[in-house]
Structure formats: structure tokens, C-alpha cells
Amino acid sequence: MTLILELDVGNTAIKWRRLKAAEVVExxxxxxxxxxxxxxxxxxxxxxRVGSVASSDLEARLRAMLxxxxxxxKFATSQLECAGVVNGYQDVHKMGVDxxxxxxxxxxxxxxxxxxIDAGTAxxxxxxxxxxxxxxxxxxxxxxxxxxxxxxxTGRVRFGAEDARxxxxxxxxxxCVHNGKWLGLVGAVRAALSEAELLIGDQYDVFIxxxxxxxxxxxxxxxxxxxxxxEDLVLDGLAPVxxxx
Length: 245
Fold this sequence. Notes:
26% strand, 2 domains, five-stranded mixed beta sheet, 12 strands
């Protein structure tokens, strides 16, 4: 039976899983760059699917590593159309493939209007109508980038580690910064949903993924009670997107 290795290569980590048929048999997360992929190739792998938004240098290293392995591999790219989803970009190849994979995977669940949120290094929000037509989206800094900008761009705003995740007003610089970063993301998502409703109406599903997805959903409160968290939404899009070719 074919054993497939799937890789979601992001800006700060690589998510991976092994599939036998359609069943996930093993999964994990690499934080040491592409070097850790070597170990994943040592097992019994027949084919590799990749979705990458890594830098050009990092992706070139990964491609060289996969080519040297002699294993069959495919890199997903953003497309004009796939599995009922139609890309709204004028130049579809300029859309990050992680967004495309997540949208294709989300639309397959119920095949109706949805908003897809990926809370990772960047916060991305994309809107699909009932016909699978991409209505547009947003790209914002994620929590780690917000902290990086504050640390590097201000002379006197100095802060330590986060004690608790909250959007309550802070009573010291640490909590003001950390609570503020979450408030900004929650507020952005709420505003994006309001804008989405102007385009697709108020009957839609919200799918959320990414390393900060669960925290963002919790902090959004009652409005997020029906949001569907899918940890592997990007990986789930690899099969249909690569089948389309």
C-alpha cells in the first residue's frame, strides 16, 4: 500500500504527516528547518506532497534534498480553479499556496460559503461564496511579527514573556503588549467577518487553522463558538490540488 509523506513548509516550522491510503499514521512538526526532513525520508515513503511558502533559498535546499532522495515528489501551486474553488486573484500564481490549499480543503467540507482563517506567522483571512468563488482576503502580521515590530521599532517599549493569553486591558507594559497583540488580531477577524457578510450574506462557516488558531478562537468569545478548527487544513488541500495538477 502506498505510503505518502505530506509537508506543509511554513516560515517558522514544517508540519508533516504520513498517510497510508487516506489514513494518517504518523504526524509531527519540525522547527529546525529542512534539515529534519532527511530523517523523514529514511522511512518507507513512496511519494511526497509539498506545500511551501518558505524563502527561495530554503525551498531550493528542500528541492535539492528531495531530488537527491530519488523519491517521487510534487510541489503544489496556486491554481485558477480546483475542486469547485475559483481563485479571485488576477495572477493566481501570486497567491501563497498555503492560502489556496486551505481554501480548497475548507470548501470540500460542506461546499458552501465560508471564511478561512490561518493564524500563523501571518494572519490570513479568505472569503468564499456559495459557488466557491474567492471574494478576496486579508494578510496581516501574526502575533510573533507584531512583537518583533514592537521590539525593533520602539525605543522604550520593552516587555517580557506572556503570563496569560487575554484581551483585557493591561496593567503593566508586559500585559499591555501581549493582550494588545491578541486584541488586534481578534478585532481584525471580527471586522473581516463583517466585511465578508456584505459579500456572502450571514450564512457561512468559519474554518480556522494555524499555530495560534485555537487561542484566537477562544479569545474571540461567543462569536467563535461555531468556528471549526482544523489543525491540518493546509495539508488536507494537498491531495485535491495535486490531483488537479
